[in-house]
Amino acid sequence: MGMRIAGSLVVVTGAANGIGRGLVRAAVTAGARAVGLIDIDAGGMDEVSRELGDVPVLSCVADASDEDGMRDALGRVEAGLGPIDVFCANVGVAVSGDLETDDALWLKSWDLNLMSIVRAARVVVPAMRERGRGGLIITSSAAGLLGYLDGLPYGVTKTAAVALAEHLRIREARHGIQVSCLCPAGVRTAMTAHLPEDSLVWATGSPLDAEEFGRFALAEFERGEFLVVAQEKVRELDRLRLRSREEWFTAMRALGRIA
């Protein structure tokens, strides 16, 4: 059994839209005592705050690529609402392309899909260790388990996010810190709105809306699950990858229509 959301202070980065917004609303539904919102989109956070009723909310504008800014934002959340019980590292960016993709876009992917998690963890993990309890929810993607044939920078950096989550799950359990890694496939958000219906994203399972996925993710976190995967097709492919990489390569080529 994992941590309970009820009675917890839950902080979400990338909270103004998409999965982040879904996690915030799901946390309130699950009984969070307060929520902290961190995003670069002040207007979006204002909209989310108005949706949450009487639950105490503190919004901070901060760029996840700026460690000092994130440290300041997390400090303001704790000063206003108390110690952070559950931290959701949810910021990310989708960069398509392949080997030829410009270095600047590769670095942007590393910065937001991996290093934003590292920077935030440097702040929240030591405090959780001192208290002997806490929760980290890291948003990766089904691409972090299976790769993403339409976007090499995205697939590689999301795979790195899964590896980081695994490392933290192993090391931090002794400090009472629970780590879960979200690996959704199709979720209807602004990030996926432009994708055609034959995209590989939709080929790995029926799409969910962001709040539906948020409720599922927090329920899995409360159960103590590490990998949070909503689509059975993703689970099947991940199990195949662990059992036989050659069979998995064949299955992924077929999924991607690669002759």
Would you kindly provide a written description of the structure presented here, covering whatever features stand out?
The chain is of the alpha/beta class and 259 residues long. The protein has a single domain (9-231), classed as NAD(P)-binding Rossmann-like Domain (Rossmann fold). It has 10 helices and 9 strands. The chain has helices at 18-29, 42-50, 67-81, 103-131, 143-146, 152-172, 200-203, 210-222, 232-243, 245-255; strands at residues 9-13, 34-39, 57-61, 86-89, 134-139, 177-182, 187-188, 208-209, 227-228. The protein has a 7-stranded parallel beta sheet, with helices on both faces. Strands 7-8 form a two-stranded parallel ribbon.
Radius of gyration: 18 Å
Q: What pattern of helices and strands is seen along the backbone? A: EHEHEHEHEHHEEHEHEHH
Mean pLDDT: 91
How many domains would you count in the coordinates? 1
What structural class is derived from the secondary structure elements? alpha/beta
CATH fold title: Rossmann fold
Short summary:
By secondary structure, this protein is an alpha/beta fold.
Comma- or semicolon-separated keywords:
two-stranded parallel sheet; alpha/beta; 259 residues; Rossmann fold; seven-stranded parallel β-sheet; 9 strands
Secondary structure: elements and pairs:
Blueprint: E1 9-13, H1 18-29, E2 34-39, H2 42-50, E3 57-61, H3 67-81, E4 86-89, H4 103-131, E5 134-139, H5 143-146, H6 152-172, E6 177-182, E7 187-188, H7 200-203, E8 208-209, H8 210-222, E9 227-228, H9 232-243, H10 245-255
Parallel strand pairs: 1-2, 1-4, 2-3, 4-5, 5-6, 6-9, 7-8
